[in-house]
Write a structure and sequence with these properties.
single chain; 135 residues; mainly alpha; two-stranded antiparallel ribbon; two-stranded parallel ribbon; globular; F-box domain-containing protein
Amino acid sequence: MYNHFETPLQCSPISKLNRDILLLIFSLNADMFSPPEYDLGRGTTLTNHFALDTTLTTSRVCGVWRDVILESPSIWDRILQLERMRELGKEGREEIMKRTGSAPLCILGPSEVYEEMQSQESVREAVFFDTLLWD
C-alpha cells in the first residue's frame, strides 16, 4: 500500500518511465493515421477516432503527463484533423495551433470538409484554414 503522501500513480510502474518514453507512447496513441477500431463480430466501428481527443484525454490523467504533452509541439502538429478542428470553435483551434509552436503541420481531412467550410460556415473559419494551408 502507499502512505498518505504518495499517490497511486507514484507507486505504479508507469511512474518510473522517463519523459522521453512517455512522449513516445503519447505520440503512438495520437496517430491520426491509425485505422478505427472495429467490432469484428458485428462489423461495426467501435469508436470515431480523433487523435486530438486521445491527446486531450491523456493530458488530463496527471500533471506529469500534462506537462509532457503540453511541452511537445511534435505531438500537437500531427493531430490536425479537419473534421475535428472544425468542431472546436475559434478559441479551441487557436489554442491547438499555439501548442504546435513553429513545428511543421500535418493536416488530415477530405477536401469536401474544407470546401463545405468555405461554403457553409463563416468566412472567418474559412480564412483560418486558408492560413493553415497556404501561408
